[in-house]
Amino acid sequence: MFPQAFHDLSKSHVMAIVESIKRSEGKSVTELAKELGMSYMGVKQHCVKLEGLGYLKTWRVPRKEAGRPEKLYRLTPQCEPLFPQVGVGLTLDVMEGVRQLYGEMAPEKLLFVHFDKIVEKWKDRISKGKSLVEKATRLVDLRQQQGCFCRCEYNPKTGFVIEEYHHPMKPIFEKYPSAMNLEIRAMEKLLGCRVKRSVRKCDRGTAVVIYQIETL
Description:
alpha+beta; four-stranded antiparallel β-sheet; 6 strands; 19% strand; globular
């Protein structure tokens, strides 16, 4: 997810911890150590340091079984600059100016052109995928390069999906909700199947965007 320079100039274990927590509602040191193949004390030292620097915060949740409450880590707003952002302020100002000059539908027309160009730019690379899963994986890789933070996941209950934890165009989607439909249509063109978008609200205040992929 992070630009290569982050990985080159920083401790890879720290980046891995931040990425893992970003994908979750909060994780304990034990969960992080197991997922990342690191020692418990190694992960704990990194988390304590990140908390001291203001990048992580902790809270305790009751265990399902008897015992002391479990301590979980979660990212703070201080981590937001780590995740790429579009020049949202400028983009929204330009779109508002276009709306005032050319009418209410002008911003949507600009967004249509934007996603149409993405389809043209990516279609050859994605079409090389030999299966829908491979095509979706290629799409995720390209979206990551664009600044999204997402991954492909398979669950026996929900099927094959793309989970999205960060989108640099979120403020634009909030101002122009129709842009979300335009993006979905673009994804459908690239994958050659239907895509259904939904938002999964989590108990601890976070939300994950789910793109349900119609598998073969």
